[in-house]
Fold this protein.
Amino acid sequence: MLGAIWGDIAGSAFERKGVKGLRPRFDMFSDDAHFTDDTVMTLAIAEGLIQGYGDLESCKSAVISSMKKLGRKYPDVGYGKQFHQWLESDDSRPYGSCGNGSAMRVSPVAYCCHNLQEVEAYAKATAEVSHNHPEGIKGAQAVAAAIYLARKGATKAEIRYYMTQRFGYKLSFTLRDIKDIYQFDATCQGSIPQAIVAFLESHHVESAIRSAVLLGGDTDTQASIAGAIAEAYYGTIPENIVKKIYSYLPNDLLTIQENFERFIANLEKE
């Protein structure tokens, strides 16, 4: 899950500025970097899973509660207009979004579920509380499945095949192919394939995040998704990077991260 937060922080400084002229060795932890809605909602999902895992409907209720609680506590971190209205409203009905918000927050699901069927069921549940458009649900399921497969030792070829056959994502392009024509796209269908390819072309977690940022567009979310898959695949994040990530997070968000790590450790003992 830290890979998602690392990607979010690294990409945050460039989402609105653009990446023209940005060097490959750009500073990932600059003074302009910060956590965004990607991190807040990822941790909200983690907290909801701690409270409701084991029953899909209980999980959905816990996820909604945590998302609204944390979203209202951190209201100015980059939410889309419709999602911000959903957070502030007492009405918790979904609003049909296909935005990539459903996918940027889903990584915790891949750590508590025991098989792909369960992963996709919980990914759907966490997505459809707000993003109940078919593409919004598919995007969350695809990212969660990619992270789960990476955790379980699948090869990049196997992950690519599953993303293509199960979800219909076309992943035959390279980031170099699309670099000059790619534009900002915050939909699942317009950003998740790019994030997955950033992972597929990577050599370690850092390179996945850098590639996702350097592509441009929705840099924080693409890097968050690529970082989440890459962390699961490569297995570790250097301790010095972990410390930098933690330095950006307030104590309450750090506490959720630590609680989720304990929750996963306990599940693995069962």
